[in-house]
Fold each of these.
Amino acid sequence: MAGYVMNLDSVESLELYTKHGVYATKISAPAGYWRKQQEGTLADYATMQAGDNIYFFIDRKIYGIGELGNNAEDCTYLNFPGANSPEEYDYSDKQEELLWDETEYSVNQHWVCFFKPSPYFFRDGIDMDDVLSSNPSKFKMMRAFWKVSFLKAGDDENQALKDVILKNNQQVLRVTNPGATQIFHSEYSGFHARVAEKISNDGTYTFNLTEVIRAAKQGERLKHEMSLEAALLFRLVNQRRHTIDIFGSWDYLSHQVIASPFKPIDYMDKMDIFGYRYIPGYEPTKARYLVIELKKDNAAIPDVDQLLKYVDWIKEEYAFGDYSMIEAYLVAADFPKEV
């Protein structure tokens, strides 16, 4: 089970989101195209699945725990029909169609996810230093939480995060009905029911990347590797047959995953796509690991070297020296003969 840690600017925002069981990333208004950072946010939304955990980060502290999912069929949606088109919308034109209306800037909250407390969002936030020191070997992505709206953690890291939050709130867990001074109360079920009524059967709110990829195309190629990441992740997560025939099926998928010893964040190596699958029936024991290096243009020999570097990293950090547990792919627009 994965975990998502969302970066917020205030406790008031936390109260608002936990009350309704909804989160929507605030982005800059697109100007006829999607920026790489916005495509990266889309790639994160593309991997969200019902049952994953969600937490919130505010001013060095982490608050949680929630679980993605709602009363409808999925946990992620377009906030309004046409939200995947990189256009600047007027609030008055879209207000009636919004699934989540957080005043005028909600037209720049293009994608939403829904969640419920699991068991609670505790008011006692845990300082980041206390989180990282509680189980140092398990925290990888949390150590690189920098300049992003939110991050995704694998099941080991997610469990370590749940552990420290639950251990620090044992007194609250002993109370049958915790009070407002102990938890953020939620009215998610009523809001989720209203959202379910609003989502039509014609797919206008369904999360997909069709318009995003169309906007990212330049001839027969894509402008950004991040749009390629988002598209491939979406197809893998949604088990698109042709994609699964090539890469196989994976239980956990993420992108821009740390693949180097700790150093300044901007200089860290990151795997474009990383994943793993479990031994069927024996979760969370892992059977295989996946790494994919993506190039929007032609492949070059250094790309092969970089991919092999990631393979060695996975072998040491995850596979305990066993190369046979790793599947590695290089995806590019074309492969020159020397490659």
Note: The domain at 210-331 is CATH 3.40.1350 (Trna Endonuclease; Chain: A, domain 1).
Amino acid sequence: MDINKKTILEQLEKILSHSSFANSKVNGRLLSFLVHASLNDEYIKEAVIGNEIFGSFYDPLESGSKVRVYIFNLRKKLDEYYSESSDKNQIVFSIDKGQYHVRFSKANNTKAPLSKKRKTIIMAIMGLLIGTLSLIIFFNEDKPEFWNDIINSNFSTTVLFGDLYTLDGKTITGEIGITRDFSINSVDDFKDYLKKNPHMADSLKSGAYQYLTRFAPYCSKKITRYFSRYDLDFQVKLLSEWDRTNLQKENVVYFGQSKTMGLLKNVLNESFPQYEFNNASIIRSNSIDGNHSTFTDVVSRGGKITDYTVVASITTQSGNSLKFFLSDQDCGAISAINYFTNNDSIKAFYDRHKLGLNTDFIALFKVEGWERKGYQMEFILIDRNTN
């Protein structure tokens, strides 16, 4: 029997009519989408699957693991189908772990499936062994120093993304739309602008929508995968929708530009007053001689980017933890989260700078490279909070 497109589609119809799929429309749509995409040799991305299957209900920020959960369940449904099927001439659909492409093979080239009862018993025993082993590893594994306080915390955790403030009004083309002004980053900034320019009050208003730059989906995916290793539950929010009264009631991990920090900027300045954050630049005062050092981002015409990136860790008086990943050019936050979700590099960083588990610090890095061609991150300096 040849494995051709017609045969594969006939097998798809058989599977979709099975009770495992007939009672689950989402699993049916998902399998059908993946099979057709695989037959057409299309490159299948997680976001494409999410939008195709879940439509407007899919949000990559808030539902980063939704697609992977459904793929995991789809594999289980396929296993269930083939364990109950006695057709020796059927086509076997399989999806490798970590992949979305469907492989097609002949049933007679595979081992005879186990009975459902026997398979259930074996899976239960394996699950018990794996679960026990995982618990042993988890409780004996050294928690990464940078995240230790959050992983072992009794506080809930929120990951915040700094969204950029917009204005509604006439655009440069003369049409009505959204405008972004680098000097207006909050409602208070907008009010100050209108005080100086009262003639604009009738033509401008706060934008109905904020927006994020490309660091957000990458950092969201990275932190989700990392926290899942420690079974750490957390929520994702935009800074504009975050309730600031939770500042001392939950752990916070902030990603974004310094100018979008809002209240968090005051908290960071209070812990490290020697730092001043401006648009695409950072000024540090030396507490010993009073001299100032300025670190300014550079974006060349040739596309090379130099971004000065800040990573900070603060514990509030209430005992909750605040983590900061500040980058005005995106690449800094992306490089920093790569570094601080690698346990080997975290350990090396803490050992090199002799940091304790509960040490508050602010570290400055220089990230250089060309857009979409990789970046290199260089350590510049570190300051500890000795208060």
Note: Residues 116-140 form the longest helix (25 residues).
Amino acid sequence: MKIEHDKFGPEKIITVHDPSTEMRGFLVIDNTKLGLGKGGIRMTPTVSVEEVCRLARTMTWKNALAGIPFGGAKAGIVWLGGSDTLKKRQVQSFARAISEYIPKKYIAGPDVNSGEKEMLWIAEALNNKKASTGKPKSLGGLPHELGSTGFGVAHSTKIAADLLGMDIKNTCVAIEGFGNVGSFAFKFLKQMDFNVVAVSDSKATAYLEKSEKGFDGKLLLSTKKKTGTVGDYPNAKKLPKEAIFGLPVDILVLATITDVINEKNKKEVKAKLIVEGSNIPMSEKIEKEFNKKGIFVIPDFVANAGGVISSYAEYKGYTPEKMFKLVEEKIKESSNIVISESLKNKLSPRETAMLIAQKKIE
């Protein structure tokens, strides 16, 4: 994929390699008009500079739309797996390799396969608490393990459902992914009385075909802990993980990695509303196709901004209570504006959100 340059960025693309630890990583600082570049560090075997560029641009729009004084950036480390000792060496090697930019131009945060432990390692490597957010509470952090992203996704979903005239108690929801984002989205959607009838993880999908109450949260968590997959939930139909996309549900929440909906499975989707809890879960081309078909898609930088709002709260030294209040306030505000304007002007939610975010940057 070709990296595109335009009037918004990217400002810097940094590629680093440390032969002694076999660390390979990328930092993309996309746009710093509104403040320091902010975005998490993705650690997967397939992460590439192109993917990091796409994610950094998403952060530019996300931070602008959320109204927080951060710019857009993202980082990636090619993580092939291994011990915690090796992971720590690679994370700290990466932090030292980009030290001239962190935290002067970029502040690290959690993403796929990086959490409070990795953020602590970065702060330790650079001897600077301001180098990362999402650190342990003992360092004044607000770790993503508190569930800020999933909390925001749930609020965005509720606003969309309300504005689209859905009856929440009679609305069936499927959640793709049961990691940090998906599990907390599940928790808060259940509290809002949504009927979650399908959940998937990396091994299987659990589907309650004729349920009126959906999953029991405690039983779902204990099943996952005990057997290693939500697919073993008692009395649920155990399906392949990919089956989650084609189930006859009203709302589909996406909460794993990039491009999970693609050319191979896009025709299977039956949901009327898709909420992008993960970053870039499909291409903009597929989003446009869904909008033409009448499937309403809440873009990632609207729905999942809770994580970066939490990062800002940590940067400002807020308590968890104040952080959750800020996330709810800002997600509700941006979701309301984007969805209302989208319905009024007959533009897709992404086009609407982009116009608002671009105006803020310009």
Note: The two ends are 27 Å apart (CA to CA).
